[in-house]
């Protein structure tokens, strides 16, 4: 499975935060973590070590996260994280070491509940305009608002080049200035 | 986005999926070209509304040293129209000096000739 296949078939989104999370205060999006492990089998050895050494510290540091432990016989160890907006993440911890599980738990703690998808743009803004977006009247004279039609000036043809009349007038002005 | 058997039957779908992937690869180059054309169209429209034209604006911005790319410029024209109007009035002021749109050539303001030219 290449990244290209993944990106094409597993969707794409724009950047978003649940309820505009970081804009005001930041609320941790992780709601609960479930640690499922076997008490005897060797694949859960790292998970058991994590629970003995690191878990209590994690629970103390994150009082807003509910931690569940599920000891189940003959099952692979796994982490299941659930988020405030209803999203879920599942990670299998089969034969992972203590350090690996620490990192994965940290990864789950910092996720928002949205699924992993290709980002179409890396920026998003609710307010793209400061001066106000373009309207058809923004560059027009506001006198048009109180005008009484018909107006001769606005109905006149656009002048693209200097007309002969204009040139003659200009010559006349120049002559006056030079004092002839 | 496939319809009917194209989305449910593997051996039919795989052909259309391969075509979609080929189109995706080809489109990456085309997207850049199409976007640039779109920005150019928008900027010509914006300039004409304000009484200059796009070629003059490019020329003047080159001269003065404002290095704003087409993408940001067209965003400005849409979302920050007053800033774009400022740039347009800059071009209108400078194009006379540079001698664009006229037969006379560049004006000799600030050029000392001492009668030799």
UniProtKB/TrEMBL annotation, chain B:
Protein name: 39S ribosomal protein L20, mitochondrial
Domain of life: Eukaryota
Gene Ontology biological-process annotations: translation
Stated family: Belongs to the bacterial ribosomal protein bL20 family.
Keyword Transcription regulation: no
GO cellular component: a single term: ribosome
InterPro entries registered for this protein in UniProt: Ribosomal_bL20, Ribosomal_protein_bL20_C
Keyword check for Endoplasmic reticulum: no
UniProt signal peptide: none
SUPFAM superfamilies given in the database record: Ribosomal protein L20 (SSF74731)
A molecular-function term among this protein's GO annotations: rRNA binding
Entry keyword set: Ribonucleoprotein, Ribosomal protein
């Amino acid at each position: 499975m290449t990244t290209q296949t993944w990106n094409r078939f597993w969707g794409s989104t724009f950047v978003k935060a649940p309820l505009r999370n970081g804009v005001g205060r930041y609320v941790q999006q992780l709601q609960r973590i479930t640690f499922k492990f076997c008490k005897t089998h060797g694949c859960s050895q790292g998970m058991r070590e994590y629970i003995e050494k690191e878990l209590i510290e994690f629970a103390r540091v994150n009082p807003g996260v509910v931690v569940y432990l599920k000891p189940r016989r003959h099952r692979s160890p796994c982490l299941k994280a659930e988020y405030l907006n209803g999203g879920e993440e599942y990670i299998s911890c089969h034969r992972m070491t203590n350090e690996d599980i620490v990192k994965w738990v940290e990864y789950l703690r910092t996720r928002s509940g949205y699924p992993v998808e290709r980002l179409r743009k890396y920026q998003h803004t609710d307010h793209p305009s400061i001066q106000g977006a373009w309207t058809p009247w923004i560059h027009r004279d506001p006198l048009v608002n109180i005008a009484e039609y018909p107006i001769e000036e606005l109905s006149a043809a656009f002048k693209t080049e200097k007309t002969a009349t204009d040139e003659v007038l200009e010559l006349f002005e120049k002559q006056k200035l030079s004092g002839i | 986005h496939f319809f009917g058997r194209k989305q449910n039957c593997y051996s039919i779908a795989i052909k259309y999926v391969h075509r979609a992937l080929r189109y995706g690869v080809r489109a990456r180059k085309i997207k850049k070209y199409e976007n640039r054309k779109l920005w150019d169209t928008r900027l010509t429209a914006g300039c004409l509304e304000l009484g200059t034209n796009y070629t003059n604006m490019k020329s003047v911005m080159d001269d003065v040293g404002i290095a704003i790319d087409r993408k940001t410029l067209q965003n400005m024209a849409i979302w920050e129209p007053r800033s774009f109007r400022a740039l347009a009035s800059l071009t209108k002021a400078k194009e006379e000096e540079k001698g664009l749109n006229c037969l006379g050539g560049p004006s000799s303001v600030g050029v000392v000739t001492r009668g030799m030219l």
